[in-house]
Specification:
With about 200 residues, the protein is α+β, with helices and mostly antiparallel strands. It has a single domain, classed as NADH Oxidase (3-Layer(aba) Sandwich), CATH 3.40.109.10. It has helices spanning about 5-10, 25-40, 55-75, 75-90, 105-110, 120-140, 155-165, 190-195; strands at about 20, 50-55, 95-100, 145, 170-180. Strands 1, 2, 3, 4 and 5 form a 5-stranded antiparallel sheet that branches. About 30% of the residues are buried.
Length: about 200
């Protein structure tokens, strides 16, 4: 059985060879990213996911901050050089999405629904993951590539100062995106028997 959504998912990979040669404008892509996040489901419709969408020098700043903070905790010159090359690859893209959870929303939901209070942090993460996949696949439909990075909490303070981030927003991931140069190889999947149980068929 063929399915357009599954076909789209099969085209989404972690792409690391990015460049800024895209046909879409920053405004078009920002609107696409915003819409993808708004259409993603969240528990109790809590809408706790937040995003900072950066282009040009603002996107570059994300990765300049990241490299500067990494250098503070790295002492091996060879490792720093290797890390710098990796960061430069992210910086070479067209933009970066910073994904956040608004912890004030989580606290409000916990107060409003105390019986479920312990679940809301997990549900916020689930909503965030759905938003990340939605953005990633929306970019894929535009012929663009992306990857999901996690340099938080190392960069949180400097990023917050650079982009005037509210105190209640907790950085959870960074997504560089752009045109794809050399496509990354598809990754293998573990055996279905280890992953799924199906009954009734």
């Amino acid at each position: 059985m063929t399915n357009p959504f599954i076909e789209l998912q099969s085209k989404r990979h972690s792409e690391y060879d990015l460049n800024d040669q895209v046909s879409q404008s920053p405004t078009q892509l920002a609107d696409l990213i915003k819409t993808a996040i708004k259409q993603s489901p969240t528990a109790f419709n809590n809408q706790s996911t937040r995003a900072v969408i950066t282009f040009g020098k603002d996107s570059d700043a994300v990765w300049e901050i990241t490299l500067a903070e990494l250098k503070k905790v790295m002492s091996d010159d060879a490792a720093i050089e290797q890390t710098a090359a990796k960061i430069d690859a992210f910086k070479a893209g067209f933009g970066t999405v910073l994904f956040y959870t608004d912890t004030d929303v989580v606290k409000e939901m916990q107060a409003q629904f105390p019986s479920y209070a312990d679940n809301f942090p997990d549900w916020a993460e689930q909503g965030l993951g759905g938003a990340q996949q939605a953005v990633w696949e929306a970019l894929t439909t535009e012929g663009l590539g992306a990857s999901l990075q996690h340099y938080n909490p190392l960069i949180d303070q400097q990023i917050a100062e650079r982009f005037d981030i509210p105190d209640s927003w907790q950085l959870r991931a960074e997504m560089p995106f752009g045109n794809v140069g050399q496509k990354a190889a598809a990754k293998d999947s573990i055996d279905d028997d280890l992953r799924f149980k199906t009954f009734g068929i």
